[in-house]
Amino acid sequence: MTAHTEQVLDQKGRPLRDLRISVTDRCNFRCTYCMPAEIFGPDYPFLPKGELLSFEELERLASLFVKAFGVEKIRLTGGEPLMRKDMPDLVEKLARIPGLRDIAMTTNGVLLPVYAEKLKKAGLKRVTISLDSLEDARFKAINGRGIPVSKVLDGIEAAKQAGLGIKINMVVQKGVNEKDILPMARYFKEKGHILRFIEFMDVGNSNEWKRNAVVTKADIIGLLNEEVPIEPVDPNYKGEVAERYRYFDGSGEVGFISSVSDAFCGTCNRARLSAKGELFTCLFASSGFDLRSLVRSGKSDQELAGAISSVWRNRTDQYSLDRALSKAAPRKKVEMSYIGG
Ligand code: SAM
Ligand code: SF4
Ligand code: SF4
């Protein structure tokens, strides 16, 4: 932290550490659990270009988060971040920010053969690539666009060739892709990439989430233990979202993002910037704070930092914890594709 860095704590004593930036609300997939095709159809009102934060605005806000609050990690997401034109240019701008240690991206991977090398050259360190099945028929149905598995595997290979760090995200849904848990574990164990199992979440308002459609961390551990036993490993740092496990045979790790069965709100230190420049302090929030208006009305860095600080200090979010305690009141939530995962 520099002399000008302010350690802000929210109402529950949680610091602001990570920033996730959604660079677009558009996507070339229509995953049933995120942007179901029936709702995100041809007439869906995606944001026009002028509504998106420009790269210059993103660079300014990102560097403010780093300089003023000590944020060291930024993740670019969406929608599909690689649908936004010239992403390597944005990465290059962000990579120049002094004090920013790590830039990562979450992507569905299909555009990585085009961009992986340019992104790496620009300063991207790691990609998390989402893949829910190795079986074509199932994957095509889940992604809603008939995209074959090979397109994502090509993306993973391109990331590997470019020298990017790689993790794989798999959202597991009961009755949809439970059968894929073991094949995915075997495949990525062999490839040497960390696979993270994500519990299906009630993000947004359109994925018809039901508690009984969640395959929990405990279910998955039980299944893995029958064939490829795993044991827990200490987190790399406080507030790490994925719980780490390693294979007994020393052949690598898997992770669990279990926000339903084991909520981690107590250590949640992530701020999210939506594609149109709203600051969200929870994935399940109904609304965000409009930073774009402040940026576009000529406010100084100090004024912007003051606004961010005040939003964070007032933060009380703990939706997943409340959900677990059956205390989460029904609310209209922001869509996942809009603020990113
Ligand atoms: N398009 C990119 C991708 O799919 O990787 C980035 C954005 S996507 C919203 C980020 C992550 O959120 C993905 O790994 C996706 O699988 C996950 N996700 C989306 N909807 C989800 C849900 N309802 N429950 C759990 N994870 C979800
Ligand atoms: Fe697109 Fe990612 Fe959402 Fe799938 S999970 S629809 S790839 S944003
Ligand atoms: Fe953080 Fe909100 Fe998720 Fe809890 S529910 S971990 S506060 S994003």
CATH superfamily label of the domain at 18-167 and 267-339 = Aldolase class I
The oligomeric state of the chains shown is single chain
What percentage of amino acids are in beta strands? 15-25%
Global morphology = globular
Radius of gyration: 19 Å
Top-tier CATH class of the domain at 18-167 and 267-339:
Alpha Beta
Order of helices and strands: EHEHEHEHHEHEHEEEEEEHHHH
The gist of it:
This is GTP 3',8-cyclase. With 341 residues, this protein is α/β, with parallel strands linked by helices.
Description:
It is built from 11 helices and 12 strands. Helix 1 (55-69) packs parallel to helix 2. It is an alpha/beta fold. 43% of the residues are buried. The mean pLDDT is 94. It has a domain at 18-167 and 267-339: Alpha-Beta Barrel (TIM Barrel), CATH 3.20.20. The two termini are 27 Å apart. A 12-stranded mixed β-sheet has the order 7-8-9-6-5-4-3-2-1-10-11-12. It is globular, with a radius of gyration of 19 Å. 32% of the residues lie in helices and 17% in strands. The chain has helices at 55-69, 87-95, 112-122, 136-143, 149-162, 181-191, 217-227, 291-296, 301-313, 319-324, 336-339, and strands at residues 18-22, 73-77, 102-107, 126-130, 165-172, 194-199, 230-232, 243-247, 253-257, 270-273, 278-280, 289-290. One iron/sulfur cluster (SF4) binds next to loops.
Quick tags:
rSAM_sf, TIM Barrel, globular, iron-sulfur, 341 residues, metal ion binding, 17% strand, binds iron/sulfur cluster, 11 helices, 12 strands, 12-stranded mixed sheet, 4 iron, 4 sulfur cluster binding, binds S-adenosylmethionine, rSAM, alpha/beta
